[in-house]
Amino acid sequence: MRIELVKRPQRSALFSMLSPFIAFALTIIAGAIMFALLGVNPLSAFEIYFVEPISQVWQLHELAIKAAPLILIAVGLSVCYKANIWNIGAEGQFIFGAIFGSIMPVLFPQFEGPLVIPLMLLLGMVGGAFYASIPALLKTRFSTNEILTSLMLVYVAQLFLDWLVRGPWRDPQGHGFPQTIQFGDSAVLPELMPDAGRANWGFVFALVAAVAIWLMMSRMLKGFEVRVLGSSPRAGRFAGFGFNKMVFFAFLLSGALAGLAGISEVSGAIGQLQPVISPGYGFTAIIVAFLGRLNPLGIVAAGLVLALTYLGGEAVQSALGISDKVARVFQGMLLFFVLGCDTLIHYRIRLIGMALTKPKGAALEAAPKLGEAR
Amino acid sequence: MDITVNILLTIATAATPLLIAAIGELVVERSGVLNLGVEGMMIMGAVGGFGAGYLTGSPWIGLLAAIIVGALFSLLFAVMTLSLATNQVATGLSLTLLGLGLSGMIGTSFVGQPGVRLPNLDIPGISSIPIVGKLVFGQDPVFYISIALTAAVMWFLFRTRTGLTLRSIGDSHTSAHALGIKVIRYRYLAVIFGGACAGLAGGHLSLVYTPQWVENMSAGRGWIALALVVFASWRPWRVLAGAYIFGAVWIGQLHAQAFGIPVPSQFLSSLPYLATIMVLVLISRNKRLTMMNTPASLGQPFVPDR
C-alpha cells in the first residue's frame, strides 16, 4: 500500500478548523493504547489524566499557572515561525528572563515598594530579548543557522543558572541548598484571587500578549510583513521589507515574551531561583504554537490543553505510579498528529493498493528507463 | 606516556557517538532531508540498547536493539515528512521531544540498574603492544564500526552510481524525479539509515561510554552531531575530523574539572556547546562556500506530481 498526496485547488477551510481536533482525538486513541500496554484501564487512566486535575476551582488556578508561560512563549514563537525563522531556544530565553528579573530581589532586597514588580518584569523582558539577540546577530551577521545556535544556548543558560544559584547568588542562610533567598513580599507577583487559588498575574500577561500579537498579525502592517517574508522572502524584498530586520524583530519579540514568562514564573509560582525552574516550558511551547495553528487566539486554547497534560502527568504518577514522563509522550504525540493532520489542509490523501497501480505504473516506468540510460 | 594514551582513548570514546550520528545525518541531508530528530533517535537507541542488554545480559543484542530502535523511530519521521509532506523542521523537533519523553518513560525502571558493557577488542599479543596496541587494536568494537562506516559512506557517496543518484536528489529533487529516479524511496532509505546510525550512537552511550541508563544521557550530542554536518560542509572525512575535535573538547573540559582548575565546573561544561556555536559561525561566515556545499533542496518538502 502506498500513500499518495493530491493537491487541493485551495486550502481546505474545513480541515483547517478540524485538524487540531482530529489530532487531539488521534492522540487520545494512541494514549489509550499506551495505557493499555502499561497495564492500566485506559478509561480510568483518562479520567485521572484529563478530568480529575480540573474538577475543582483551585485546580483551575493550577492550570492557569502552567498555561501562562506556555501561552506567553508560544505567541512569541508563532511570530517567528510565521516569518520562517526558527527560534527553538525559548527555554534559554525563559531562563535568562528569570535571571535578569531576579537581579532586583536577589541583589537589592532592600528596595521595596510598588515599583519593584514592574522593574523586575521589564528586566525579565530585557534579559530574554538580550539572550535571543545572540542567535539573531549570528544569523544576520554570519548567516549562522539559528536552529542550532539558539538550541545550544539553552544548555549554556541552564549551566549558567546552575552556577549562579550554587555560587554567587546562593542564599547564605540556605543551609547549603542551591537556591537564592526567598523573594521579598514586594517582589512576588500578586495572586489574582487569593481566596480561590494560586493563579497570578502571569496568566493575565499571557492573555494580553495573545490579543496584542493577534491584533498585530491580523490588523497591522508589521503582521503583514511577517507573513510576506515568511511565505516568500523574494516578494518581501521587492516590497522593501528587510529580512535582517525581521530576524531581529522576531527574535527580540519572542525572546522578550519568553523572558517575561520566565520572571513571572519565578516571581509568581516559585518565589526564588533554583537550579531548575522550568519543566521544559520553552520546548512544550513549540508544540503549543503548532497546535494553536500559529494563531495567537488558538494558542490560548492550545496552551490550556498542554498545561492539562502537565497536570495529568503529575496526577497519573501519584495515582497509578506511572512516570510523569507520560506527559512528555502525550505532548510529543500531539505535535506529531497535528503536523500530520495539517497535511489534510493542502492535500487530499489517497491510499493506493499495490495491485491497483501495477498496470499504470508499468506504463509510466518506460520513461524513467530512458532518462537513466542517458 | 600512559596518561597520553589514556586521554587519546577517552577522546576516541567520546568522539565515536558524535561521528556515527553525524555520518548518518550526513547521508540523510545529502538526500535533501533535514532530520532534526537526531537527539531523539539517539536517546531512544540508548534506552533500547540498555534495556535489551540489561534484560538479555548480552551487550551485542543490546547494540543490535539500539540500531533497530533508532531505525524504527526514524521511520516515524520518514512517513510524516516524505509520505505526508509535513514541515521537516517541526517534525524533526517533535521526534526529538517525543524521543526524550518516551525514553524517560521506558527507562524509569532502568535507573540505577547495572548495565552491561561491550568488551574492548583484545587480540592476544598484539593488543598488549605499548601505545599502538591499545590505540589501534584495543578499543571498543563500535569505534571500529565508526571508522569503517565513515570510509564506507565516503566510498558510497562519491564512488558509486547510487551515491551519485542520492546526491543528485539532494541537489534537485524535481530534476531527479523528472529523470525517473524514485525520490521518495531513496529518501526513505536514507532517513532509515540515519536513524540506524543515531540509534547505534545511542547504543554506544549506554553500552560503552557509560554502561548505565541515565535520563537525557545524550546531553545534546544529537544536536552537536547536526552541527558537525554543517561544520563538515557535508563531507564525511571532515565529519571525522570534527567529531574528534569535539571529542577532545568534551574530554578536555572533563579533565580540566578533575584537575581542579579554578574555573566553575559549569563554565567548563558549557564549553562543548559554546565551541559548537563558534565553529558554526566560523564556517558559515564564508557564505559562498556554504551555498556551494549545502544540498540545494535541503529541508524542502517534495510531493511528486503525477
What does the model show?
The complex is a heterodimer of chains A (374) and B (306). Chain A is mostly helical and 374 residues long. Chain A has a single domain (41-321), classed as ABC transporter involved in vitamin B12 uptake, BtuC. Chain A is built from 15 helices and two strands. Chain A has helices spanning 13-37, 42-51, 57-82, 90-101, 103-107, 116-142, 146-166, 201-219, 221-231, 233-238, 243-270, 281-291, 296-320, 326-346, 354-373; strands spanning 2-7, 347-352. Chain A has a two-stranded antiparallel sheet with strand order 1-2. Chain A is globular, with a radius of gyration of 23 Å. Chain B has one domain: ABC transporter involved in vitamin B12 uptake, BtuC (Orthogonal Bundle), CATH 1.10.3470. In chain B, α1 (2-30) runs parallel beside α6.
In the CATH hierarchy, the architecture of chain A is: Orthogonal Bundle
**Main beta-sheet strand count, sense and barrel state of chain B:** none
Which second-level CATH architecture of chain B applies? Orthogonal Bundle
Kindly provide the radius of gyration of chain A, computed on alpha-carbon positions and rounded to a whole number of angstroms: 23 Å
Q: Compute the number of structural domains of chain A.
A: 1
Summarize the model shown.
With 374 residues, chain A is mainly α. Chain A has helices at residues 13-37, 42-51, 57-82, 90-101, 103-107, 116-142, 146-166, 201-219, 221-231, 233-238, 243-270, 281-291, 296-320, 326-346, 354-373; strands at residues 2-7, 347-352. Chain B has a single domain, classed as ABC transporter involved in vitamin B12 uptake, BtuC (Orthogonal Bundle).
List the helices and strands and how they pair.
The complex is a heterodimer of chains A (374) and B (306).
Chain A: E1 2-7, H1 13-37, H2 42-51, H3 57-82, H4 90-101, H5 103-107, H6 116-142, H7 146-166, H8 201-219, H9 221-231, H10 233-238, H11 243-270, H12 281-291, H13 296-320, H14 326-346, E2 347-352, H15 354-373
Antiparallel strand pairs in A: 1-2
Chain B: H1 2-30, H2 38-56, H3 59-83, H4 88-106, H5 132-137, H6 141-159, H7 161-171, H8 173-178, H9 183-209, H10 221-231, H11 236-258, H12 265-269, H13 271-285, H14 287-293
Helix pairs in contact in B: 1-6, 1-9, 1-10, 1-11, 2-3, 2-4, 2-9, 2-10, 3-4, 3-9, 6-7, 10-11, 10-13, 11-13
